Amino acid sequence: MTIVKKESPIGSLGLAPGVHWLKVVVAGDTVAYELMSQTPHTSPSQRKGTGFVRKWSGTARKDDDSDNEWLSHINAKHLR
Q1: Looking at the domain assignment, is residue 28 inside a domain?
Q2: In which domain, by residue range, is 27 found?
Q3: How far is CA 43 from CA 17, 18, 40, 48, 72, in A?
Q4: What residues pair up with 4 in beta bridges, in sequence order?
Q5: Number of domains composing the chain
């Protein structure tokens, strides 16, 4: 495990660009960390679409019920 002071900037950890899984232990004035795994960074443009928007777009319907406050709140906030 690598040990640094709590006040140390994140850049002092010496991690390469990418996604990291760390095990962190905080004790007193120090932080100890261990690199568990590192995965290459994938930008959103490289991800395959799931088709969720195409499938569900425009399918919401507005149900009015003046006795249901929660439903009225959801309608006002999320539906036009």
Answers
A1: yes
A2: 1-11+18-38
A3: 13, 11, 10, 11, 38
A4: 31
A5: 1
DSSP letter at 59 equals -
Q: Which residues contact 1 (CB under 8 A, 6 or more apart)?
A: 23, 25, 32, 33, 34
- CA torsion, ordered 55, 57, 61, 62, to nearest 10 deg: 150
Amino acid identity, position 11: G
pLDDT band at residue 67 under the 50/70/90 scheme: very high
- What does the pLDDT look like over 29-63, one tens digit per residue? 999 988 887 776 656 667 788 898 888 888 877 88
Please report which residue ranges of the chain form alpha helices under DSSP H: 52-56, 69-78
